[in-house]
Amino acid sequence: MPIQYFAEQQLFLITTHNTAYAFCHNKEQDLVHVYWGEKLPYPEDYHIFPLRVLSSFNSSSHELLAEYPDRSGIQNNEPCLRATFAEGTRDVRLRYATHQIEGEELTLHLKEQFYGLEVVLRYRVFADCDMLARRVELTNSGESPITLEQVLSGALPLPFDRDNFRLTHLSGAWAVETQLDRPLITPGRKVLEGRLNYSGHAANPFFALDALDAEGQGATETRGEVWFGVVQWSGNWKIVIEQSRSPYKVTRVAAGLNDYDFGWQLEPQTRFESPWLALGYSNAGFGQMSRNLHRYEINHVLPKAFAADLRPVLYNSWEAVLFNVTETAQMELAEKAAQIGSEVFVIDDGWFGQRHNDRAGLGDWYVNSQKFPNGLKPLIDKVNALGMIFGIWVEPEMVNPDSDLYRAHPDWAYHFPNREPITGRNQLILNLCREDVQEWLFEWLDKLLSENNVGYVKWDYNRGMSEPGWPEAPQAQQREIWVRHIQAFYKLVDRLRGNHPGVLFEACSGGGGRADLGALSHFDHVWTSDNTDPLDRLPIQLGYSLVHSPKTMYCWVTDTDWNSQYKYDLRYRFHSSFMGSLGIGSNLNDFSPEELAEATKYVAEYKTIRPLIQHGLFYRLTPLSETTSLAAEYLAEDKRAGVVLAFNHRPHFWQIPRRLRLQGLAPDAIYSLRGDIVEGEPTSLSGQALMQRGITPKFTRHFGSALIQLSKNE
Ligand code: GLA
Predict the structure, then answer these.
(1) pTM assigned to the model
(2) Which of 393, 398, 532, 560 has most ligand 1 atoms within 8 Å of its beta carbon, as the pocket-test mutant?
(3) What is the CATH topology of the domain spanning 629-712?
């Protein structure tokens, strides 16, 4: 039974295979957090600690450990819910009323002490991946509007018997996404957030906390306790990690929608939902954390249509030709793309309106007749005849001021009166809160997909918000845009998917700006980064792997060397892109026949290992902090086959390649190895030996890569 209620102790206990999460309601009907961690043997083990209140300046115990802190009492903690009621009362007092348990879902009903605010805390359990998800739902059952000022999905006090928490999070910038950061938590507050109307390159809505022991050692890839969570939202989000010094050193996390510039007028009889906050605990380090998150993403988050399918090898012409897409050139590329084994051919930016560069055309979604005199049909037919799915790039939420759309509807972009709109990449953001804009968007996108045999959509979003104004709306609603935009964005994609169930959807935002579980509950995968340098990509891809599965991450082989002083061979480029779903973005017209043949060989090789890469269990074999030598293992769930990808960079002559100790194998089974292993090492070893003694990959160049396959002898 994943959810139990013990009436005598008034205790709720949620359990998965390895973890437990417990809270209770006290006699005042406050919800008090009790436990989150490794599963304990008996229900009695989940007892609440009697905390002492030492002075009138400190929070009372239930506030310190509140399961869903409201804004009331004497407390310094981040509240989950802030609101203003009709008489100007800015104090929310929630009390537990009742609950239901239905299978894997727990619904708790809370009531405001005086005002007509009904609060539901909903918990879902995902026992197969040791995860749970929670959110809050607010209903105004009174007669006057309530102004919501902060709505977080949940808060979590961490065990206060552990000290010295370390935060692991992902920060970045355009072309440098998902970089690892690991500060220690000290008393005070650390805020991770996105507040530009997209989840962002700057930070990923994810946190992980582990505790350092007396020797200063924290969890590793394979050992130690890690508490982690993800806000499933593509808009403004916030994760607050705070620690109080006294009287108990409680470390807490509170996460959900960002309150920055946020306000929501909750009218009588209306409802507001927060995003889901996914939560997990691993007692086997960061590797297990990632595998739990990957399984959660694939089994429970991704749209069902393609969740279980392998992602196709795609070709995208963006880096090859930029905006110079023409019928003839695209056909020529399509032939070569098909020749090397691509399964999807995506035409990127530049096919529509007067889109010859990024200064004009966004919003004018008609086919450019200079570039495609006969429309898209001849190209699509050709792509289909070559056996590939046709894909197309769109950026629906944006408009260039230099477009027919903007000239006709300047009020369709977010704006403030008396303010000159500031452009980003020469574009403005369309106001998706407006129903006319939503309808117009649905109509042209639906028409594009209905009239053309499109099987793949790349959906881009290329700037952050400025002037978040919606002057036509009543003033009390104008700060709702942050949430309304994302709700409309999700609804639009869902409506299109409903009408076109066979179409794959990719989320992109100048690379990885929308790599979040909110987007991935409506899209099938994301574009990871505009940086396609195969060396730069490795830490980006490994950072991404902390939270997301390899299959949701497209990785292209291109010709662009962002660090132009280095020359990588084709093999290294492919191996770097083998780490996720494979794409090719090179200008294949510049490839010699030998290079085309070599690329064909790699694409075919990828297809043979694709089930392992995309559906296998993922193990990082090198520490996250490592930069010169990186390796990852992808292992079939039944442990019968696996593949290792390893990379080595500019070693000195006295450095021999790091031995790789594999993980997750069947200890007594004998595995045969083939691929890039140094001469003299055995090619057949037990699983235990491979995990204890390891293997040495063979690298031939300064920017070397190795691919080793293993299969269990039956
Ligand atoms: C963004 C995307 C790129 C490409 C361009 C087109 O930057 O990340 O892949 O689609 O837009 O303008």
Answers:
(1) 0.98
(2) 393
(3) Immunoglobulin-like (2.60.40)
